[in-house]
Amino acid sequence: MAVQTVAMPVPVARRPRARSLRSLLRNRGALIGMVVLLANVIAAVFATSIAPMDPLDQDIAQRLLPPAWLDGGSTEHLLGTDQLGRDILSRIIHGSRISLLIGFLSVAISLPLGVAIGLVSGYAGGRFDDAMMRLADVQLAFPFILLAITIAGVLGPSPRNVIVILAIGGWVVYARITRGQVLALREKEFIEAARSLGAPHMGIMLRHILPNVLTPVIVVGTFAVAQMILLESSLSFLGLGVQPPTPSWGGMLNDGRGYITLAWWLTTFPGAAIMVTVLGLNFLGDWLRDLLDPRLQNL
């Protein structure tokens, strides 16, 4: 009697987009981070329409008003006013534009630069590798905030110079991560096969090595945006970043530090905006790490 063999249906591979969406919906931290990021992006893009008042308008008669839910507060100024009578909520909304712009642009400059240096350095080796890694070691030997203060003192405080400073300080991390990944990949069998088939070095780096090193770099870049926002706030707090009257979260902290005991809302709400934004970006970074690392995926 012949035994019939029944072909078992082969499960269809999960589509990456569907898997990513399901992973996002299951991760509460990632959802919170996505909501925070979207809220900041909307506030930055539509700040002029969303803000209840002009962030630069001064009204000394309304100075140091408390939030609306406290005695003496006004519904026209939900989060109160500062020492010059400017609306705190409007300045926080407009400050998100500066923070996100500087955070994302500095990473957008430093990440490709660091990846390119690390890719060539790890693949080619030799003197170029030695020179780049020694330069990275020298830069890492200095505390970044001191390096940023020095450069800002030379270039002068402005949003453009802050982006340049943060980009200069951020390339080292991406270069070292990329170099380490390239060193582990360049002797693999598929790379040797590409070389034996006559593939050019540039083609090997771009087509075979680069796609395999981007995952950790993307995850680090997500965390770096949060770090850049913190560093920008630190420079603005020290008076070396965005200059008044342009609203920035770090600048608002600097303006309110002399009124902490008299008007706590001047520093509390900008500080909360920084904390929530950085926390949300870190949640997104954790989710991306879990999503892109195959060792952490549920099979």
Succession of helices and strands: HHHHHHHHHHH
- How would the global form be characterised? elongated
Characterize the quaternary organization of these chains: single chain
Query: Low-confidence runs (pLDDT<50, min 5 residues)?
Result: 5-14
Distance between the termini: 39 Å
Helical content class: 55-70%
Major sheet? none
User: Structural class, from helix and strand content?
Assistant: mainly alpha
Number of helices: 11
Mean pLDDT: 84
Q: Please count the beta strands (DSSP E, at least 2 residues each).
A: 0
Structural Rg = 25 Å
Beta-strand level of the residues, as a percent range? under 5%
List keywords for this structure.
69% helix; single chain; 0% strand; 299 residues; mainly alpha; elongated; 11 helices
Summarize this entry quickly.
The chain is mostly helical and 299 residues long.
Structure, described:
- By secondary structure, the chain is mainly alpha-helical.
- The chain has a domain at 103-243 and 284-294.
- Helix content is 69%, strand content 0%.
- The protein has eleven helices and no strands.
- It has helices at 16-26, 28-45, 47-50, 88-124, 126-141, 144-155, 159-185, 189-196, 201-237, 249-256, 265-292.
- Helix 4 (88-124) packs parallel to helix 11 (265-292).
- The radius of gyration is 25 Å and the shape is elongated.
